[in-house]
Amino acid sequence: MTQPVSTSTPSASAGGVLAPSSPAKRRRSRRKFSVLTRRDRFTLLFMVGLPAFIHIGLIWVPTIASVVLSFTKWNGIGGLEKIQWVGLQNYSQLATIYQPFWPAVQHNFIWLGTFLFIATPLGMLIAVILDTNIRGSRIYQSVLYMPVVLSLAIVGFIWTLMYRPDMGFINNLLVAITGNQSFIKSGTAIDWLGDHNLNLWAVLVAAGWRHVGYIMVLYLAGLKSVDNTLREAASIDGANARQTFFRVIFPVLAPINVVILVVTVIESLRAFDIVYIINKGLNGLELLSVLITVNIVGESSRVGFGSAIAVVLLLISIGPIIFYLYRTMREQPE
Question: Looking at the domain 103-286+309-331, which fold is it?
C-alpha cells in the first residue's frame, strides 16, 4: 500500500539545514513580536525625538559653533564670508594683552572657594540643626529657602538697595551700632559696591545668602532619608552627636555630597546675573561670564574673542561634570 505524499513545505532539508521561511511567515513573525504600535512610535518620537532635537539645537550646536568661532575674527555683522580665520591668536591675546582675563579667572576661583569652604558648610550646619526638629523649624526652613526661589538678578537688586551708601540698611546699621550720626552725612560712608577693593566680597555675601538656602534644602532632604537605626546604633556604642554625624551620617550622604560639590562648582563658574546688574560686572567684579557678554554683545562686538573666553570657561567647567558622570555611572549596577 502506497504511503500518502505530504504536500507541505519541509522544515529542513536532508542535510538538516532549516529551509527558508516564506515571506508570509516572516511578516507574521514581525507582527507577532512587534511591541510598538503606530501610536507608540509617534509617542516615542514626540517624547524622545523632540527633546533631543531641542537639546542638540540649543546646547550642542551653539557649543560647537563657539569652539569654531574661537579660532576666528568676526564682529557679528555681515554673512559668514566676513569671518576671518586667525588660529590661536584669540587665545594668545587672552593670556598676554587682555588685562581683565586673569583677574576674572582669579575672581571665579575666589567665588568657588567662598562657596565651597564657607557657604556650603554653613548650609550643611543649618540643615543639621533643623534636622533635630527644633521648635519653629518649618518657619526657619521657609525663611532660609526664600532667596532660592528668587532669581539672582532680583537678589542683586535687593542687596544693591541694602548696600547704598546713603540710605542703605548696612550703613544705617553701622550708624546705629557706633552712634556716629555724621557717618553718612559727612560723606565718609562706605561705598560697598563702588569700591573695587570691597565690592567683590559684598557681592559674595549676597550670592552666599542664596547659596546657603539651596545647600540647606539638599542636605536636609538627604538627612531625612537616613535610616534612624544608624543613629541609634551609634548612640548605643557611646558616640556623641558630632561623632555620629562625621563618622556615620556624613559617609552615608556620599551621593548627596558629590551632587552638592558639582552644583557648587558649576554655580561658582557660571555666576553672572548678580554681578552684571552692578556696574555691568566691571570695576573689580570681573568674571569670565561677564567678559564673554561684554565682548560678544558689547559696543565693540568681538564674537571670536568672546567665544575664546567661553571655550576657556567650558574647559574649566567640564572637569567637575566628567567627575560627576564618572561617579554616577560607576555606582550603577552592571
Answer: MetI-like fold (1.10.3720)
| CA 181 to chain CA mean position, Å | 44
Q: Which of 209, 196, 199, 111 is nearest to 158 (CA)?
A: 209
* Predicted confidence pLDDT, tens digits, the chain (334 residues): 445 544 444 444 444 444 455 665 555 555 544 567 888 888 888 888 888 999 899 989 989 999 999 999 988 777 778 888 999 999 999 999 999 999 999 999 999 999 999 999 999 999 999 988 888 888 888 888 888 888 888 888 888 888 888 778 888 888 888 776 665 665 667 888 888 888 889 999 999 999 999 999 999 989 888 888 888 888 888 888 888 888 889 888 888 888 898 889 888 888 888 888 877 777 778 899 999 988 888 767 888 999 999 999 988 888 877 877 777 777 655 5
Which residue carries 543649618 as its cell? 126
Q: Where are the domains of the chain?
A: 103-286+309-331
Q: pTM (2 decimals)?
A: 0.77
Contact between 156 and 206 (Cβ < 8 Å): yes
What is the DSSP secondary-structure string of 76-127? S-S-GGG-EE-TTHHHHHHHHT-TTHHHHHHHHHHHHHHIIIIIHHHHHHHH
